[in-house]
Amino acid sequence: MTATHPRDPRAVRHLAPRGAAHADLLHRRPRAVVVGAGIAGLAAATGLAERGVDVTVVEREQYLGGRVGAWAEPAADGTPLSMSRGFHAFFRQYYNLRALLRRADPALARLRSVGDYPLLDADGRRDTFRGLPRTPPWNALLFALRSPTFRLRDLLGLDPRAAAPLAAVSVPEVYERLDHTDAETLLRRINFPPPARHLAFEVFSRSFFAPPREMSAAELATMFHLYFLGSTEGLVFDVPDAAFDTALWEPLRAYLRARRVQFRTGVAVTRVDRADTGFRVRTAAGEVLPADGVVLALDVAGLRSVVTASPDLRDPEWRERVLGLRTAPPFLVRRLWLDRPVAPGRPAFLATSGRPPLDNISVLDRYECEARSWADRHRGAVVELHAYAVKSDGAAPSQVLRRRLLERLHETYPETAGARIVAELSQWRQDCPLPGLGDFARRPRVRTPFDGLVLCGDAIRIDLPVALMERAAATGWHAANGLLARWGLAGHELTSVPTRGRLAPLRAWAARGR
After folding, report:
1. β-strands 237-240, 31-35: how paired?
2. How many Å apart are CA 184 and CA 42, to the nearest integer?
3. Is the dihedral of CA 127, 130, 136, 142 positive or negative?
4. Each residue of 177-206: pLDDT tens digit?
5. Is residue 178 within 8 Å of residue 142, measured between CB atoms?
6. How far is CA 11 from CA 71, 146, 156, 230, 278, in A?
7. Burial of residue 446 (number of CB atoms within 10 Å: 0-12, 13-18, 19+)
8. Burial class (CB in 10 A: 0-12, 13-18, 19+), 258
9. Where does residue 24 rank: exposed (0-12), middle (13-18), buried (19+ CB within 10 A)?
10. Which of 163, 428, 464, 489 is most open to solvent, judged by the fewest CB atoms within 10 Å of its CB?
11. Is residue 386 within a helix (H) or strand (E), and if so which, with residue range?
12. Would strands 80-84 and 70-74 be described as parallel, antiparallel, or unpaired?
């Protein structure tokens, strides 16, 4: 099943800056260097290239896609296997990300729908998003009422005044009100029942790679707005039908090369110097790339490194914002190639709560063609285990962590207990931004004090109700628009879920409570 889906009629269009349609109409074609080829960098490169700007993309890794990249990696016996940093859900309300993907796949034929997204707690209670109505607030209400962890008396026991901010989200106001409160405290104030709190909200907060007590309540409220009360798209999502590189990024690379974009992969940028006519971007290979505009689309550590090494980027307040960005605790992805299949009824994706260190299980051969081909040949399965926000000071995951993950798989899917692991690959990373308490006001914005230099990525502030991959895409398009406007070129329209909560009485109540 492909991912065609009607858009929420109340989605908001954010109009593009006006200007010339193409750089051919200018007296000189601008040159831009995009540093980083994740979602944000590719969105920026696309926005610039489509207006005729000469674009060079410089990427430290050999592959595109950043944290949503994929590559071939040899197993212990030398067999090349497809690997990534783990499962990603492409939600229907990720409008700006989907606009990027449509450049190379107009019908989004490489995305397929996942029919359900069950949540399982330590006692075996299961929540599901299958069959929910799409219209707020009935989607959230029915989800709560049919949940085994949420009873009618729990609904009647909620504090409506404390819950009002969830229905009154607007950005940046929700951050001004809630960003210094942690998500766990907000849920206690609402009197959200603990079993449902752990099953639903903890699962989502950990997708930000942060436990609820360290995650901003404003991020939680924005997420609730994005997925439930602000959008009719719901929590059903799509996944690529093949590895990320095959399904998404190599087709987009071809699309951009047809628009004269140059790619330099396996090359790290070390610093950015300002020049009379623009910038000079310096790489670890000793190259100097002249540019009229620069997009820094880096992860937190990469951005801090480049800014620290760039004496020309001297603005003290701005540097403090950049250097103050934080990373979330590390996470582990363990992908296993098993010699027997999992039970037929197992979902493609299962989120878990109360089963530490396990946060979710993906059965890749349910949706990814490379995994399905391997499973068919070996009559086995390809299973992926995720552990988010791991408490660890080590540079590598402990053997205890790896063993406990496997034990949790066997407990959750008992048929895997007797399976032999034919091959396995792991990713241990700590490079995701932390949406911590009070961080929103301190985040650097897309525009910088230096004319012609812009930032983008999911750590960068944008005053729209977006998160995760969609925040990366939205800031990428916005970064391109900033440079295009500087050169008198037309920008690109952005789209978001409604920018204010839909439930007017609760909005008024929240305002009185303020």
Report:
1. unpaired
2. 35
3. negative
4. 999 999 889 989 999 888 777 665 666 666
5. no
6. 35, 28, 31, 9, 37
7. buried
8. exposed
9. exposed
10. 428
11. strand 381-387
12. antiparallel
Q: How far apart are CA 267 and CA 282, in angstroms?
A: 10
- 3 state DSSP class of 83: strand
pLDDT classification of 215: cutoffs 50, 70, 90? confident
Residue recorded with tokens 């949420």: 150
Residue among 115, 183, 118, 189 nearest 149 (CA): 118
Would you place residue 514 in the very low, low, confident or very high pLDDT band (cuts 50, 70, 90)?
very low
Q: Are 315 and 451 in contact (CB under 8 A)?
A: no
Distances (CA, A) of 285 to 36, 267, 288, 300, 396: 16, 7, 9, 22, 28
Residue whose C-alpha is closest to residue 364's, from 86, 90, 166? 86
Among residues 91, 116, 126, the alpha carbon closest in space to that of 199 is found at 126
Give the per-residue pLDDT at 410.
Answer: 98
First to last CA, the chain: 46
pLDDT digits (tens, 9 = 90+) for 393-402: 767 888 999 9
Percent residues over pLDDT 90 in the chain? 68
Residue keyed to tokens 């490079």: 431
- Extended strands (E) in 63-107: 70-74, 80-84, 90-91
Cα angle 29, 33, 35; round to 5: 160
223 within 8 A of 74, measured Cβ to Cβ? no
Express each pLDDT in 421-439 by its tens digit: 999 999 999 999 988 899 9
Could you tell me the pLDDT band of residue 47, with boundaries at 50, 70 and 90? very high
- Euclidean distance between CA atoms 87 and 349, whole angstroms: 9
CA distances from 355 to 124, 202, 330, 336, 409 (A): 10, 12, 18, 19, 10
**3-class secondary structure, 427:** strand
* Residues 167 and 228: beta-carbon distance below 8 Å: no
